[in-house]
What we know:
Elements: H1 2-21, H2 26-44, H3 47-76, H4 89-98, H5 104-129, H6 137-154, H7 164-171
Helix pairs in contact: 1-2, 1-6, 2-4, 5-6
Amino acid sequence: MILTLFTITLLGILIYQDFKTRSVSILVMGILFILFCIQAFDAERTLIAVGIPFLFNLILVIVQLVSVGVYFLLRKKKYASLVDTVIGLGDIAFMVICTIAFSTANFLVFYVASLLIALVGTGLLRILKNDRTDIPLVGYMAFMLVVCIILKLSTTSFDFYNDAFLLNIINN
């Protein structure tokens, strides 16, 4: 429970930093990665049980980032670095950190939901502020992770590393 509260606190720091300054602490993200590794090995207990979903999740993120790169390459008809022009290095680092926190199916739902929330939230902020703002992707993803942690605390059937909760929702 203490690790969970510490994790929520660190995620809260990332949310605040990203929405306030559009930059995040690499130290906080490093600590989160260590906490996620501890929680993953505590839940699964073997390197293979943790490593295979981590690799699948990582491949998913890499494929998505490469796809975005190809899209912008074709759109602009020249190569330009995506890092810190289209997507921040902190955003990429946080995506990679989150890959260890979930089974593959749960990660896919978390990832897509986070991106949709970021899109809708940023769209609403742009309408309300009448200003073109950057997307605080780490902030939105960290918020969704807090929501997932609260769901895990309130529902005994939900587990980050077990797809039974998700499969039960799909089958009913």
